[in-house]
Design goal:
45% strand, 291 residues
C-alpha cells in the first residue's frame, strides 16, 4: 500500500566557508612564458605579486605604461606588489568594493603610478631602494632575475606569505580579482512524491558574487547514511561560475523510491574551488521523509 510522503523544505544556506578563496592574477598580453603560482596559505589579507622584466612593447608604450585592473571577487583585502626591472608607469584601475591595503612598487629603475591614492602606495623601486631588482619566472630559471630572492624580500617586508604570483618577461595588461567568501546561491527542489512513484528534481545554481572557477557537488543521503551521486562526482567539474547570472540548471532527475524505502533523505549541494575539492564554500540542504 502506497503512502503519501511528507516534504519538509528546510533549504538552509550555510554561508560560512571552511576557508576563503584567494585572489587571482592573470596576464592578458604576455610575450613569452607565463609563470603562475597560487598557494594554499589562508590569511586575512592576500599578498599578490605581479612581476615582469619590462612592458610588452616599449615602442607602443613610450611611457612604459602597464594597465592593472582589480576586480571585486570577494571581501578579502589585497596587498599588491607590482615589480619590473625596467621603469614602468603602473596605471591602476580598482573597481567598486575592492579593498587595497597597500600597493608596493618594486624594481631596479624608478617606477610611478596613477589610479590610486598615494597614501596606500609604498615605492620601493630604484637602485639602493628595491626589494629585489627583478624576478619574473617561477620556479626561478636563472639568468640573474632571482624570483626566490624577490619573494623572500617581499614576504619579509610585508610580514605576509605569498598567495598569488603572476610573471612574464614582457607584459603590459593585468587582471586581478580579489578573493573572499563566494556569494553563491544554490536552490534545489526535491518535489513531493508517493512511495513507489518517481521524484522529479532540478538544481539551479546562481552566483551573486565575483567570478570563480569551481566544482559543483550534488549528493543524496539515503536513510542508511550512504550517499548517492545522481549527477556524477562532481556534478560539474571545474566550471567557470560567472558573476551575477544563472550558472546552471542540472538535468531533471527522475528517481523512483522502491517499497521499503521509508526514512529521511537529505539533498546536499555544494560548491568548492577546483584546487580544493573537499572544502565547501556554499551549501544548500533539502530534507524530506518517505513514510
Amino acid at each position: 500500500m502506497n503512502k503519501m510522503s511528507s516534504f519538509l523544505a528546510l533549504l538552509v544556506m550555510l554561508g560560512v566557508p571552511q576557508v576563503l578563496i584567494a585572489a587571482t592574477a592573470v596576464i592578458n598580453d604576455a610575450n613569452g612564458t607565463v609563470y603562475e603560482f597560487n598557494s594554499q596559505v589562508v590569511q586575512d589579507v592576500d599578498l599578490v605579486l605581479v612581476s615582469i622584466y619590462e612592458v610588452e612593447n616599449r615602442a607602443l608604450y613610450p611611457d612604459n605604461i602597464a594597465n592593472v585592473v582589480i576586480e571585486n571577487g570577494g571581501e578579502k583585502p589585497i596587498v599588491l606588489v607590482l615589480s619590473s626591472y625596467e621603469q614602468v608607469h603602473w596605471a591602476i584601475n580598482v573597481t567598486a568594493g575592492v579593498e587595497i591595503k597597500e600597493v608596493i612598487l618594486n624594481g631596479y629603475y624608478v617606477h610611478d603610478f596613477s589610479g590610486v591614492s598615494a597614501s596606500i602606495v609604498t615605492n620601493k623601486s630604484g637602485v639602493g631602494n628595491y626589494l629585489g631588482a627583478c624576478g619574473y619566472s617561477y620556479p626561478y630559471i636563472g639568468g640573474g632575475c632571482d624570483t626566490n630572492v624577490l619573494i623572500d624580500e617581499v614576504e619579509n617586508f610585508t610580514g605576509l606569505s605569498l598567495n598569488v604570483f603572476a610573471g612574464s618577461y614582457k607584459a603590459s595588461d593585468f587582471a586581478i580579482t580579489s578573493g573572499g567568501t563566494p556569494l553563491i546561491d544554490i536552490s534545489s527542489n526535491a518535489g513531493t512524491f508517493i512511495e513507489g512513484e518517481t521524484i522529479n528534481t532540478t538544481l539551479s545554481i546562481s552566483n551573486s558574487g565575483g567570478p570563480i572557477n569551481a566544482d559543483i557537488w550534488v549528493a543524496l543521503q539515503l536513510p542508511n547514511g550512504s550517499l548517492y551521486h545522481p549527477y556524477g562526482n562532481p556534478a560539474l567539474a571545474c566550471s567557470l561560475i560567472p558573476s551575477g547570472q544563472l550558472v546552471a540548471d542540472l538535468p531533471l532527475l527522475n528517481y523512483t523510491f522502491p517499497a521499503g524505502s521509508e526514512g529521511e533523505y537529505i539533498w546536499y549541494a555544494s560548491i568548492s574551488p577546483c584546487d580544493r575539492p573537499y572544502t565547501s564554500h556554499a551549501k544548500d540542504v533539502d530534507t524530506f521523509v518517505v513514510q
